[in-house]
Specification:
Blueprint (H helix, E strand, L loop, with lengths): L2 H9 L4 E6 L4 E6 L2 E9 L2 E7 L2 H10 L3 E2 L9 E5 L6 H18 L2 H9 L4
Antiparallel strand pairs: 1-2, 2-3, 3-4, 4-6, 5-6
């Protein structure tokens, strides 16, 4: 999968939107106005900065060389997941799903209801 395929996967989630960050226009995936993925280029390879749990973040960094600590993010919860690395595609998709779920579940019940009533289209 390419970086565009992964971004499209993120944006297919219910209520997901793309937002450009900073003057450089860095693409981020948001839900309810909160980020759950940021597309970055790291040493010539693309990846997503994704939210996770503290325990899982530590374990993933030990298991895969393609999972790094992202700059300017809380390293307890955020990971840089490089696409062309030792991380299987299915694992990357799982991590995208998890990041979305963590951020979505942190939204107020009202925002969650509003998102569930919206249809993609």
């Amino acid at each position: 999968m390419t970086e565009n395929d992964y971004m499209n996967y993120c944006l297919q989630k219910q209520g997901a939107r793309e937002k450009l960050l900073f003057k450089e226009g860095i693409p981020a995936c948001t839900v309810g106005g909160k980020m759950f993925g940021v597309l970055v280029k790291n040493q010539g390879s693309y990846g997503l900065i994704l939210k996770g749990t503290s325990d899982l973040s530590q374990a993933l960094r030990q298991k895969y060389t393609g999972i790094k600590i992202p700059k300017n993010f809380d390293d307890r919860y955020w990971n840089l997941v490089l696409f062309n690395s030792d991380i299987p595609k299915e694992e990357i998709l799982f991590l995208i799903d998890l990041s979305y779920k963590i951020v979505h579940d942190s939204l107020s019940k009202r925002i969650q209801r509003d998102l569930s009533s919206q249809s993609k289209g």
